[in-house]
Design a protein that fits this description.
The protein has 394 residues and is α/β, with parallel strands linked by helices. The chain folds into three domains: 15-53 and 103-161 and 269-310, 3-Layer(bba) Sandwich (FAD/NAD(P)-binding domain); 170-265, 2-Layer Sandwich (D-Amino Acid Oxidase, Chain A, domain 2); 320-393. It is built from nine helices and 18 strands. The strands form three sheets. Strands 1, 2, 8, 9, 10, 11, 17 and 18 form an eight-stranded mixed β-sheet that branches. A seven-stranded mixed β-sheet has the order 6-5-13-14-15-12-16, with helices on both faces. Strands 3-7-4 form a three-stranded antiparallel β-sheet. Strand 10 (139-142) and strand 11 (147-155) form a beta hairpin. Helix 5 crosses helix 9 (381-393).
Amino acid sequence: MHSSKPHNNSPLGARGFDYIITGAGCAGLSLLMRLLQEPSLCNKQILVIDQIPKNKNDRTWCFWEEKAGLFEDIVHHRWHDIQFLSKQFSDTISIAPYTYKMIHGLDFYNHVIHFAQQFPNVTFKYDTVKSIVNHKNQVEVNLENETFTAEYVFNSIIFQQPKVPRGKYYLLQHFKGWVINTQEPVFNPSLATFMDFTVSQQHGTTFMYVLPTSTTQALVEYTLFTEQLLEQTDYKNALKDYIQNKLGITDYNIEHEEFGIIPMTNIDFPNCNGHIINIGIAGGQAKGSSGYAFQFIQKRTAEIVTSLVKNQHSFTKTTFSEKKFKLYDSVLLNVLHHKKLNGDTIFADIFQKNNPKTIFRFLDNDSNLLEDLQIMNSVPTSIFLKAALQELFH
């Protein structure tokens, strides 16, 4: 990439930058893109560190938006209608004013890195980050054989598994997805199966996504909310069974597969430690009750850039709204963890009794109190009220 022109006045004797981004995944590269699009920050000396170059299509992000977003140019496919399926309730739903969007990981990486190559002040380095240490006026990033410093480090690396204190929950959203191609046209590329809960719930909350991008291609993804992972053969068998017996497809080939794990937890991931600013899942941007992360990462990185521009640096500020949704997440995790109600029943109630705009605003942490009450009234009050009291007063 580019050679850097780092600051040479570091009292630690290390090469200095204005900003270092540790981890070049969704959060790190989203922040880089926003920094480089901000006129007052785009000339800052920026170092981006990751273990290996981002040259594989290792994940797919799906999210909903009302308008064109920062990464609109690389949206691979869009849906305006979704299917929700369960044993209690099934429907095809128009999600206006939202659009459901898909971005491929490799398209995202290439897009941001290609844009960054226009800036000689941006340096990419591939190495393992051993530690990040706060000093009085700067932060030190230690690699295998080198040390760098910066005024701020934006970190998306989780260095160790967090301990689960009493009264907190740590579930996993884990999923295996196959992009399949068929010989015959079998898919409707204008309709996404958002959640299909008609599959077995024996392990816990379990559903399938089917996201067609043409009449002969779709991403089929098996997703679970549980405390333990399955054997890899279990994911494979579930996908094979669903494709054959539910979708009725026997002749297909697997073009691509991906596997992922996202924490669903109400553990506090510190968003700031001195001048180390945590981002992505390390900064708590995966929603505790659903695992959704892409849009929360976009909000967080936009807020960081705004703070840097205004020199406010209010990276630790927690709003009333954030506390409110943290409580809601904790309540749902309480219900799921203690198996007070099955996840398929909860989501079926929510989708049956609310309009999609209210649901998506709630899932985005954008709903107002009236909309929150509408969602709460759709689920069994006695179960959720008891869980809420436990979370408030434990």
